[in-house]
Specification:
This protein is elongated. The protein contains 7 helices and 3 strands. Helix 6 runs antiparallel to helix 7. The chain has 175 residues and is mainly α. The chain has 2 domains: 71 residues, Transcription Factor, Ets-1 (DNA polymerase, domain 1, Orthogonal Bundle); 81 residues, Alpha-Beta Plaits (2-Layer Sandwich), CATH 3.30.70.
């Protein structure tokens, strides 16, 4: 229980230590607490939200058990800040969607095997061009291609790279 007391102090809610102790809330029970449980204990809305947000930050990946470690809790001076994750970064992302014009009419004229070969060739050309401009093909959707510029590697000119890739693809369709 001392770990819970220290943890509550660290997140600025030490006044609830006795309440947690009286209700046998331990580190193993903590991840299972719900908003309703905390309301039943008489906690204010703000304290319930802060506790639930902090408890969520204590859990690892969805398939991993929660790890009770006071070193990952936000400090009292920054109660609204989520658990810091050094691998996260904010960046601009340019999204490009490419579609094969006239594919519906082409599908009506070609055998399915021939159409599959046309789509595969089209997807290969799109992938090659997008990679040349250091973009990332996120998904193929029939005759559509979704690509990201700025992920997984960011450049200052990702939007320009996406435009150049689109122009290159348009030029190739005219050839």
């Amino acid at each position: 229980m001392d770990d819970i007391a220290a943890w509550l102090e660290e997140i600025g809610l030490g006044q609830h230590t006795e309440l947690f102790r009286a209700n046998d809330i331990t580190a193993s029970v903590l991840p299972e607490l719900t908003d309703e449980d905390l309301r039943e204990l008489g906690l204010s809305l703000g304290h319930r939200r802060l506790l639930l947000k902090t408890i969520k930050g204590l859990a690892g990946a969805p398939d991993e058990p929660a790890v009770f470690d006071t070193s990952v809790a936000p400090s009292p001076s920054t109660p609204e800040r989520a658990t810091p994750r050094p691998e996260a970064e904010r960046r601009q992302l340019t999204v490009m969607f490419v579609d094969l014009a006239g594919s519906t009419a082409l599908t009506a004229r070609l055998d399915p095997e021939d159409m599959r070969a046309v789509i595969a060739g089209y997807q290969n050309v799109c992938s090659e061009v997008i990679r040349r401009y250091e973009g990332h093909v996120a998904k193929f959707m029939g005759d559509g291609v979704l690509a990201y510029f700025g992920y997984p590697r960011a450049h200052e000119d990702d939007a320009e790279r996406a435009i150049r890739a689109g122009l290159d693809l348009a030029r190739r369709s005219l050839d």
